[in-house]
Design a protein that fits this description.
Layout (H helix, E strand, L loop, with lengths): L20 H5 L15 E7 L5 E7 L1 H4 L4 E5 L31 E2 L5 E7 L2 H10 L1 E6 L18 E2 L2 E2 L2 E3 L2 H7 L2 E9 L11 E7 L2 E6 L4 H12 L6 E4 L15 H13 L3 E4 L15 E9 L5 E12 L22 E10 L13 H19 L3 H7 L4 E2 L4 E2 L5 H12 L12 E2 L2 E13 L5 E8 L4 E5 L8 H13 L6 E5 L15 H26 L8 H7 L4 E8 L11 E13 L4 E12 L6 H20 L31 E5 L23 H13 L15
Parallel strand pairs: 1-14, 12-13, 16-17, 23-24, 27-28
Antiparallel strand pairs: 1-5, 2-4, 2-6, 3-5, 7-8, 9-17, 10-15, 11-12, 11-14, 15-16, 18-19, 20-21, 21-26, 22-23, 22-25, 26-27
The structure holds dioxothiomolybdenum(VI) ion (MOS).
């Protein structure tokens, strides 16, 4: 493994600086809310102050009297809109089955009940504060346990089964020689991208342009068109830059179409930017989970039975289910039986949605802590236990993995981290006044790929532009598009421009599920191949010499530019292999018992994600995932008042996330085995795996340091007393 400093500076894999970096630090990157629009009006939302019930009256007279207020919409006078039914084949996915302002019924606190449009942002906000709404309150359902008598049993999450049974769990578990039976609880957590959601909508006749903060311009376009009853080709959605997304911007939320409908109604462009508090109710969250794990093994460490039962919640107006148990069905070879179940309870809370490594972030905390508990019960090293139960096949489909190097991740990680220095007994290591703990866990995330298109254009100046309707969430997409095109066409990086975030560009899937690299890069390569073929044909037709440049071919063709488009999609390989990424996370924690001070002292993460297209941006992805994992382990929690349904931590002072002082040195490595079965580039995604496993590694390290097994996140000081 070479360090970043030793890597070549060009080509695929090179740690190339972000091509959009200068624009961002110089303030030239225009985010959705920054888009300068002439004569724009400003909108502000009014949110329900109760969690369940009905609006009985609305008094907007004081709000209307505010200088510059143009219009106030409620369910009594809202502009025409309909609820687009989710239809994956048409790229229509809504987060909530609720059109904003469509009803007097209240399903959760924070539900939109009015939108105020004014000449200025200040006027809109002042007006929104003065809209007076009275309610008839019902008793909200706010506790999963209180309402668990009749849970829903969701069948699937985006096509993956959520209930499964292999073998006779009860018999195999009863016959096991050693058992772990434990319940792990993860709290509600909220995405907090630096850039809050924002939408600006401007009509020109029957043509609509929307600047939307979204991970899916084409999904946003399709939902807005369906909601407003206009053809999708009349709608263009733009999002060239994102200040983070993490899943909250994946599927459409109601505010985007509402702004477009309001702009149509008042005949002016309208701009809406959500406040940080509104990000806690209107744009999704990671739902609370209670995960019951049972694992049975023989004395020699062979796992014979596993059961992972998840209880979680959704809102009254959605079906999203946090899919915690999926990895448990395939991480470890299990001799006799594996059962996975998910129970879902509807609560009067805002709607959950995917949040970085949905299911896997919470699920790997429970599973990988339970494995650690089993290792202690067996007096086995936790890495040895994992290696003993390694599986070379996906047991759920009886297919081989396309490429799996998990054992190597543990070996490399153990070496880098210095695992051999660990003495296994809890509380056996200390330094100065601090107890020291080492913990380890496996990381994993599915490797997915979708159909995607791209366009490559060569100009008369010899410059090449590649475009696809994908996104750069701050991940490095612009940069790897540039690298892949430059490598494919054999031109310098400086001669390539990447464009993205425009729904009129060739089709690309939602930028989620860690699949953008694996989906879009093959399309970029295919478009570059198609462009090269066109250029070669033009060179031949015009009898140009062999060493001709791209600029000479384009000029010789008599046109301004030569352009080619291509589509790339997965093939039949999915019938023969299961594609998945793996990793090993190691954490050292320090605990000062006198002060109750817990800190993470260092983390090593070693990842098997196929070929790495840019070692700098990929490493940054892992750093981001691990930093978030440290936050999830130690501090993140959305606190809901279970009497009223109020979120009491709806700001970045009360909702704790790590700051620089909380983050220790992070040691990141890739085993880098290209996965050429998956795609010709050999690359799997790196967006989400970094947060998986790290929370368990920290919790396991805390047990090792303190002898306290904390199964409720976050690992707050009071839970360690
Ligand atoms: Mo990710 S939670 O699929 O944006």
């Amino acid at each position: 493994m070479t360090s970043i400093a030793d890597r070549p500076r060009t080509g695929i894999g090179a740690p190339v600086d972000r091509v959009d970096g200068n624009a961002k630090v110089q303030g030239q990157a225009i985010y959705s809310a920054d888009t300068p629009i002439r004569a724009a009006a400003y909108a502000a939302l009014v949110r329900a102050s109760i969690a369940a019930g009905r609006i009985t009256s609305i008094d907007d007279s004081a709000a209307k009297a505010v200088t510059g207020v143009l219009q106030i919409y409620t369910y009594e006078n809202r502009p025409p809109m309909q609820l687009p039914p989710t239809d994956m084949t048409k790229g229509i996915t809504v987060s909530e089955n609720l059109t904003p302002l469509s009803t007097d019924e209240i399903f959760y606190q924070g539900q939109y009940v009015a939108i105020v449009v004014a000449e200025t942002l200040e006027g809109a906000r002042a007006g929104a504060d003065l809209v007076s709404i009275t309610y008839e309150q019902a008793v909200p359902k706010l506790r999963m346990q209180a309402d668990v008598s009749k849970p829903l049993l969701p069948e699937q999450s985006f096509g993956t089964p959520l209930q499964s049974e292999r073998g006779d769990f009860a018999a195999a578990y009863a016959a096991a020689e050693v058992r772990v039976d434990a319940t792990y609880v993860t709290p509600q957590e909220n995405h907090n991208p630096m850039e809050t959601h924002a939408t600006t909508a401007a009509w020109d006749g029957d043509q609509l342009t929307v600047w939307d903060s979204t991970q899916w311009v084409q999904g946003s376009r399709n939902v807005i068109a369906a909601a407003l009853g206009v053809p999708p080709e009349n709608v263009r959605v733009l999002c060239p830059f994102l200040g983070g997304g993490f899943g909250s911007k994946g599927f459409a939320w109601g505010h985007s179409a509402l702004v477009a409908a309001v702009a149509r109604d008042i005949g002016r462009p309208v701009k809406l930017s959500l406040g940080r508090d509104e990000m806690f109710t209107g744009t999704g969250h990671r739902a609370r989970t209670e995960q019951h794990l049972r694992i049975g093994a023989r004395r020699d460490g062979t796992i014979v039975a596993q059961r992972h039962d998840t209880l979680t919640h959704t809102s009254m107006v959605a079906d999203f289910t946090e899919p915690c148990g999926l990895s448990t069905t395939l991480m470890y070879a299990t001799e006799s039986a594996v059962t996975m179940s998910h129970e879902l309870v509807r609560l009067n809370v805002s709607t959950p949605c995917p949040m970085r490594a949905p299911g896997e972030a919470s699920g790997s905390f429970a599973l990988e802590c339970a494995i650690d508990e089993l290792a202690y019960a067996l007096a086995l090293d936790p890495i040895a236990l994992r290696t003993k139960n390694h599986t070379d096949r996906d047991p759920t489909q009886d297919l081989p993995w396309s490429s799996k190097h998990l054992t190597e991740c543990f070996e490399v990680g153990a070496e880098r981290f210095g695992w051999a220095k660990r003495t296994p007994a809890p509380r056996s290591m200390s330094e100065g006044r601090e107890l020291v703990g080492y913990g380890v866990a496996a990381a994993t995330y599915p490797a997915l790929r979708q159909r995607a298109g791209a366009r490559a254009t060569a100009g008369a100046d010899g410059r090449v532009t590649v475009a696809s309707a994908t996104h750069d969430l701050g991940t490095g997409m612009y940069t790897i598009m540039t690298q892949v095109a430059a490598a494919k066409l054999g031109v310098p990086l400086a001669d390539v421009t990447a464009e993205l975030g425009d729904s009129s560009m060739p089709d690309a899937p939602v930028a989620g599920g860690s699949w953008s690299t694996a989906s879009v890069m093959p399309a970029i390569e295919a478009a570059c191949d198609a462009l090269r073929a066109k250029l070669d044909a033009l060179a031949d037709a015009n009898h140009l010499p062999r060493d001709v440049t791209i600029a000479q071919i384009v000029r010789g063709s008599g046109s301004q530019a030569v352009t080619a488009e291509a589509v790339a999609q997965p093939g039949a390989e999915a019938d023969r292999f299961t594609f998945r990424s793996f990793g090993a996370q190691f954490a050292e924690v320090r605990y000062d018992e006198d002060l109750g001070r817990l800190r993470v002292a260092r983390v090593t993460g070693v990842f098997d994600c196929g070929r790495i297209l840019n070692h700098k941006t990929a490493r940054s992805q892992m750093i981001g995932g691990i930093v978030w994992g440290i936050g999830m382990a130690l501090m993140e929690e959305t606190v809901l008042d279970r009497r009223t349904g109020t979120i009491v931590t709806d700001n970045l002072a009360d909702y704790h996330v790590p700051v620089n002082a909380d983050i220790p040195p992070l040691d990141i490595a890739f085993v880098e085995k290209p996965d050429y079965t998956f795609n010709a580039l050999g690359a799997r995604g790196v967006g989400e795996i970094g947060i998986t496993g790290v929370v368990a590694a920290i919790a396991n390290a805390v047990y090792h340091a303190t002898g306290k097994r904390v199964r409720n996140l976050p690992l707050l000081p009071e839970r360690l007393l």
